[in-house]
């Protein structure tokens, strides 16, 4: 490694995280789309995560501001994309996410469903699937936003049952409605609309929409890589591969088009930043944040050692590697939090960072409680510390 490479310290990486991820109060975003763009995409598998991740980055506005962006302005949309996971991205970025990642997933989803239909032996094929999809879209046009159950009631084909794994130990009969709806969503022909219930609900209604405009794949990959480096750099090729779910070849081609600069880190390894992005980040004011499980700031790198003490990982991650609700102080994960059944926000520090940190975390917990109001949040992926806090 060349000693002439610019040095980016751990402290500098944490400064970048606070400002670029819009977590320091002076860097808070004014719109939900701006909050999402700051981290490229907001994790959306768990409905509450999307709202709580946006909340932590917004200067003002309650859950209704996020609902406005998702369902009225439609400035933010959910796409099955990176790592075959549901993310919410700004409409400006959506065509690039679609072309770089979601299109490939949609092709695999269709191939897998057609394989299951063929194996079932009922004569269901691509023609049958096309008819079922067309009927579902016609029903949405006629009835407006519908849940999956309502669509199944309106479209007889969606009530079809098939047997998966016939003759094998895992043989099971399943309905096709969920799979057809998932395929239509992956193709960009329908999108999730306002759910039944509150903002914590995942029982979405669906609306007919137009697919995103095509972007050349190389251009789309490069745009995602460029934005990701700006948000998460210094980072490595391996980090980008993990975050996107792309092949190593796709990652390397995208980075070649971006032309990142190399920097050295405190552990004498090298990492990548956006071209010219080697100037020290202004130091933000002291800040605390309570981030939800799966938040991008906790899941943005394969190697999180610059902001997470490895000794704290067992308490804060589930068995599959999903991060739970975390407490942050100045760019470092220092504890975890949870909401009890009575609505109380409880938290525990795993590292002592002094009275100022403890006071700031308490104030942030109170702000979170006011924002959440009467809603109750149970993470989809539960971690040892979260379970312990609510026990």
Task: Describe the overall structure.
The chain has about 400 residues and is of the alpha+beta class. It has a domain at about 290-390. Helices cover about 45% and strands about 15% of the residues. The protein contains 15 helices and 15 strands. The protein has helices at about 10-20, 30-40, 45-55, 65-70, 95-120, 125-145, 150-155, 175-185, 215-230, 235-245, 250-260, 295-300, 315, 355-370, 385-390, and strands at about 5-10, 40-45, 75-80, 85-90, 145, 160-165, 170-175, 190-195, 205-210, 260-265, 270-275, 290, 325-330, 330-340, 345-350. The strands form five sheets. Strands 12-13-14-15 form a four-stranded antiparallel β-sheet. Strands 1-10-11 form a three-stranded mixed β-sheet. It has a three-stranded antiparallel β-sheet with strand order 2-4-3, with helices on both faces. Strand 14 (about 330-340) and strand 15 (about 345-350) form a beta hairpin. Helix 5 runs antiparallel to helix 8 (about 175-185). It is globular and about 65 Å long.
Describe the secondary structure blueprint for this structure.
Blueprint (H helix, E strand, L loop, with lengths): L6 E2 L1 H11 L11 H7 L3 E2 L3 H11 L5 H10 L3 E5 L5 E5 L3 H27 L5 H18 L2 E2 H7 L6 E4 L7 E4 L1 H10 L3 E4 L11 E4 L8 H16 L4 H8 L3 H11 L2 E5 L4 E4 L14 E4 L4 H4 L13 H4 L9 E4 L2 E8 L5 E5 L5 H18 L11 H7 L1
Parallel strand pairs: 1-10
Antiparallel strand pairs: 2-4, 3-4, 5-9, 6-7, 8-9, 10-11, 12-13, 13-14, 14-15
Helix pairs in contact: 5-8, 5-9, 9-11, 10-11
Protein name: Winged helix DNA-binding domain-containing protein
Keywords: DNA-binding
Organism: Streptomyces flavotricini
């Amino acid at each position: 490694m060349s000693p002439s490479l610019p040095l980016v310290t751990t402290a500098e990486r944490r400064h970048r995280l606070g400002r670029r991820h819009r977590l320091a109060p002076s860097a808070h975003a004014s719109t939900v789309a701006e909050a999402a763009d700051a981290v490229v995409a907001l994790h959306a598998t768990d409905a509450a995560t999307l709202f709580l991740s946006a909340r932590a980055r917004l200067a003002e506005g309650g859950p209704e501001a996020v609902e406005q962006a998702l369902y009225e302005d439609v400035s933010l949309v959910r796409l099955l994309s990176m790592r075959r996971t549901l993310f919410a991205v700004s409409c400006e970025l959506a065509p690039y996410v679609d072309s770089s990642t979601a299109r490939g997933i949609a092709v695999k989803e269709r191939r897998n469903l057609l394989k299951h239909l063929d194996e079932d032996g009922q004569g269901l094929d691509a023609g049958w699937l096309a008819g079922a999809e067309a009927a579902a879209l016609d029903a949405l046009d006629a009835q407006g936003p519908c849940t999956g159950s309502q669509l199944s009631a309106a479209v007889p084909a969606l009530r079809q049952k098939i047997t998966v794994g016939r003759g094998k130990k895992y043989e099971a009969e399943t309905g096709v409605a969920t799979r057809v709806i998932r395929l239509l969503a992956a193709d960009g022909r329908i999108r999730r609309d306002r759910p039944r219930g509150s903002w914590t609900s995942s029982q979405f209604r669906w609306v007919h929409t137009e697919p995103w405009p095509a972007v050349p794949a190389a251009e789309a990959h490069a745009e995602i890589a460029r934005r990701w480096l700006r948000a998460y750099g210094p980072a490595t090729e391996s980090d980008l591969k993990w975050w996107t779910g792309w092949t190593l070849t796709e990652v390397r081609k995208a980075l070649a088009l971006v032309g990142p600069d190399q920097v050295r880190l405190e552990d004498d390894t090298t990492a990548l930043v956006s071209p010219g992005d080697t100037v020290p980040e202004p130091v933000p004011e002291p800040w605390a944040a309570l981030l939800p499980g799966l938040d991008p700031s906790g899941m943005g790198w394969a190697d999180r050692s610059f902001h997470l003490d490895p000794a704290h990982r067992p308490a804060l991650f589930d068995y599959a590697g999903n991060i739970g609700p975390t407490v942050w102080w100045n760019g470092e994960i220092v504890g975890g939090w949870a909401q009890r059944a009575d609505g109380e926000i409880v938290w525990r520090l795993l590292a002592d960072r002094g009275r100022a940190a403890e006071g700031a975390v308490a104030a942030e917990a109170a702000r979170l409680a006011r924002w959440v109001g009467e809603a109750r949040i149970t993470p989809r992926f539960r971690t040892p510390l979260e379970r312990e806090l609510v026990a």
